[in-house]
Structure prediction request, 360 residues.
Amino acid sequence: MIEKDFIPEMAGTLPETGTVSWQAPSNIALVKYWGKRPGQLPTNPSVSFTLDTSATRTTLKYRSVPAPSQVPVFRIYLDGVAAPHFAAKISTFFERICVYQPFLGAYEFEIRTENTFPHSSGIASSASGMAALSLCLMDLERAIYPDMIGEFFKKKASFLARLGSGSAARSIEGGLVEWGNHASVPGSSDLYGIPYPFEVHPVFSSFQDTILLVDKGEKQVSSTVGHGLMQGHPFANSRFEQARQHLDGLQPILREGDLPAFISLVESEALSLHAMMMSSNPYFVLMKPGTLEIINRIWEYRKDTGTPVCFTLDAGANVHLLYPEENKEAVGAFVSEELLSFCQDGQYLQDHVGPGALRL
Ligand code: PMV
Prediction:
């Protein structure tokens, strides 16, 4: 599909009022998106595990207004409390998506949102948050165009979510999700995420993610700034090529359940992402001493026990421990005995691969 396919052609009948609720999950990338072109288009394809328990729940109330405006009027609440600090981000989002949902200006909205993970956990809620809001808005669009087919609903939800936060494009579907045009991935697009279209070994359908909260504070450098620094970055082209090669490399690994190869590819991706940050101009480091301690402990533990556990990182200091469900008990003991002392207030989140967004 191309961009213009997401602009409605017909006039529909606008409902006066309504309320919809959606839950959208967070995701953790195996091959990372880092660097973008105008229009929130990625400079390389990425693939992620959809998580389950880390999610955002959003309820959208809409009411038509007598005098439509260009961009809708809205109020936003986080955990029941007015959250004006989110207003700028949501306004920008509405401005970007108005062309694809031209009926938005005919409404005023009340957005009530809550995360299932503690806020200030250092876990980005932008992916799950933008996905949940986009799904609510698609529900309104479906009320206007009731013939809409399910596949289009999800694709457009991902398309809209991408315009709020790039990685949010991967927070609609469950399991493994690919986002970004790549010749060897049929159906792939820079515009939206798709369910990973290749055979996947069952070990990955219940993969675990223990998220170790090393630093719950605000990041010194936002991912928006980080993406921007890939422009003119001396290693940018090699990095984008590496991501494409990793995506191809993952295909037989995921099919065969080749855990040693999975581990080395996923850890290489995480460290390459942070290497890009450390070699940007200006340079920055988001890892903390605890991040490196944990990484070294994982390597030692893996060498000593042969347990197929690896780490990945997003744009922050927290560490995601990835491993098969059958190793849950052993890894749980390792986490409590050796890793929790490096977590802020000993905090962590237990998550696993999940089925994707859910209408509530
Ligand atoms: O969606 P953004 O702009 O917050 O970027 C997310 C980037 C990473 O989390 C570092 C990687 C990824 O692919 O999710």
